[in-house]
Amino acid sequence: MISIKLIGKEEKKVDAFVAFVFENEVEQNVKDLAHLPDALLKEVSRLVKQKQLQGKEKEVMPLSTIGLLKAPFIFFVGLGKREDFYEHTLRKASAHAIKTLQAHKCVHVVSTLPNLHGELGLDELLQAAAEGYVLGEYAYDLYKKELREKRTIKTISFLTQQTLATANALKRARIGTEAVCYVRDLVNMPAEFATPAYLEKEARALAKKHKLKIRVYGKKELVKNKMNGILAVGQGSRHEPRLVVLEYTPLKKKESLALVGKGITFDAGGLGIKPAEYMEDMKGDMAGAATVLATLKAAIELGIKKNIKVYLGLAENMLGAAAYKPGDIITMSNGTTVEVLHTDAEGRVVLGDALALAAKENTAIFDFATLTGAAIVALGHDMTAVMGNDADLVEDVLVASRRVGEEAWELPMRDHHREQVKSDVADIRNIGKPRMGPGTITAGCFLEHFVDKQPWVHFDIAGTGLANAKTDLSPRGGTGAIVRTVLEYLLM
Ligand code: BES
Ligand code: ZN
Ligand code: ZN
Predict the structure, then answer these.
(1) Spans of all domains in the chain
(2) One of 5, 274, 402, 422 is an active-site residue; which one?
């Protein structure tokens, strides 16, 4: 990962400067930078007059500055119109700019920040810009030399005041983006490597590093605790399922937030096998588990003073001879009986047991899951579907998501939806009836059976956690979506 830092004065070795410019203000913005030689200002004027440099969003213009500046290049990066600007504009702009910096094989870059005339704090701008650079630079490059060679940039230094606020902003950016990239790496890792055992190992390493309490429910403990949902989904695979619990309790009081993650390390669909084109990305069906693990890691590194317990529901949904079948009835750990009608609706079955345990041990619950293809049908790949039983908590989450530029949208859960998961032979069924229904909502209604009275928010990240094409901040594949939202919420 590139390192981002603050510097008071110019660096010795610089390959490029970055200057952000607003549409229709380019010349003034460049003048405001100070110390730029007249020859450069003249060149900027010429480019502006010829409409080659306009400051529009997504515009990145490299200019050779040999003999004029210490760095051989200055990059003008467009932000669009000032009146449309918000923090996320800058995050997207720096993420976009870094590709051009890479194309020019830059190694050490010095970045300025746009002048917002005090409308936004320097710390907020700094955090957004830094996050954009790091997230835009990410590639899953372990198996491709060409990608590794593209990643030339080693440092991005911000020429700005060094105060407690700016140092803090940079720390938040660093820890937050590291967590996002950790999720991306885990999601992008082939399912043959990122098995339930592997994710358990990652959890153990985090526990060891920070002296966290850890519980691992292997096959024996799952049986003992009647966690038959996790067992059923995992029984068609050669990889044993598990439930891993991590506890970070910096406070003595009993309030604690559970972060529960769906960790299906590969979702073949089970006996109700997926068609090949829908199976392609299913190594990423553990994005929820990766999200909660990474969020906990970042929360600890940020020194967040809140009790947090993480639950990883880990299993592989395969078609082995012992695989669970349509028609099976599972008695879950909280006594709820589930009629299995589709083995591909496995995430909710695993989460049921994980949520039931979390409900016993926490005063609030968030869960994260690549749960339904219907979430993509409803909201696409850019909006996380959010549901819950507490309007205030849902609103807080939505506020946090807006602040960090991650879009989320609440879907309803009403009694007529709840009716749709009732079963004729058990308490509930694992797919809605009729089949052609609001799949994301009925999945939420299923999960509701496993939480108690405590406030609970469910995040369906099927669309946002796995990108089918590159986005502003991420390449195709794992995105690490919603990690920054949860961190923002925890810091609120
Ligand atoms: N993991 C999938 C959901 C998914 C689909 C995530 C696409 C990411 C991208 C989940 O386990 C699943 O297969 N859900 C089924 C439920 C259906 C059988 C009721 C779905 O969405 O089709
Ligand atoms: Zn499935
Ligand atoms: Zn799944």
Answers:
(1) 3-160, 184-491
(2) 274
